[in-house]
TrEMBL record:
One term of GO molecular function: methyltransferase activity
Domain of life: Eukaryota
Keywords of this entry: Methyltransferase, Transferase
Organism name: Microdochium bolleyi
Methyltransferase as UniProt keyword: yes
GO process annotations (BP): methylation
Cross-referenced Gene3D superfamilies: Vaccinia Virus protein VP39 (3.40.50.150)
Pfam families cross-referenced by the UniProt entry: Methyltransf_24
Classification via InterPro entries: SAM-dependent_MTases_sf
Keyword Cytoplasm: no
The protein's name: S-adenosyl-L-methionine-dependent methyltransferase
Length: 230
């Protein structure tokens, strides 16, 4: 039986309406009871179609806190799946936008599988405008959907996706990053081989990033863009 206490610890870090917190609780329970999936462990990609493949609750809480602390308002999520982590992103973006008084902010979510995109939309609808209004879901191959109509700046990139797409995604998003923009990638230890190109790029100081790994299950890579010549 999964340890559901981690769910309560995670959602205690989040500011949200009671109905949204209950939704998060429900979705986390579903995600925790499914078999784990890592894109580089030999399982076929099709295996993931019926699974959440979601960030663990403690990782979701950290992402939410990083977003609030950095006042991020423009986020790209590579690998939305059933939209669980997207709820955390949207909550933080909406709260940051209101705090800044601009009313401007967006989570650009990406999902290649239509069935998963439909499920994600259902989940966001349950949360209502607290979440829905901040999300722009782009269906299809993100190597195409992220080519155009990105915000002038991207404050945060979440990579929770088939690892061969991690570096192509960063290539598309990096031109929009400014000093202080963050990159978070899930399972960088468990999927070390798949993330090799990404980590090599981020570890090279000439590319302007500083990188660390948070010691969560499977690893959670966190990188900050500090600019070049720093």
């Amino acid at each position: 039986m999964p340890d559901f206490s981690v769910i309560e610890k995670a959602i205690s870090s989040v500011v949200a309406a009671p109905a949204t917190l209950e939704l998060l609780r429900d979705l986390h329970k579903q995600a925790l009871t499914e078999p784990p999936y890592v894109s580089t462990d030999g399982q076929a990609e099709s295996v993931a179609l019926d699974r959440f493949v979601a960030l663990d609750p403690d990782k979701c809480a950290l992402v939410y806190i990083l977003l609030r602390a950095s006042r991020a308002r423009f986020v790209v999520e590579a690998g939305t799946s059933f939209g669980l982590s997207t709820i955390y992103l949207a909550l933080a973006v909406g709260q940051n936008a209101r705090q800044e008084g601009s009313g401007s902010g967006k989570v650009i979510a990406t999902e290649n599988e239509p069935a998963k995109a439909a499920r994600a939309r259902e989940h966001w609808a349950r949360a209502g405008q607290e979440v829905e209004q901040w999300i722009d879901l782009r269906e299809g191959d993100l190597r195409e959907t992220l080519k155009t109509n990105l915000p002038e700046r991207v404050d945060f990139l979440l990579l929770d996706i088939w690892t061969p797409l991690a570096m192509p995604t960063l290539n598309l998003v990096k031109p929009r990053m400014t000093v202080g923009s963050l990159v978070v990638a899930d399972n960088n230890i468990a999927a070390k081989t798949g993330y090799k190109d990404l980590v090599t790029y981020l570890e090279n100081p000439e590319n302007g990033f500083r990188i660390t790994t948070a010691p969560y299950d499977g690893g959670l890579l966190v990188a900050v863009y500090v600019g070049v010549n720093v």
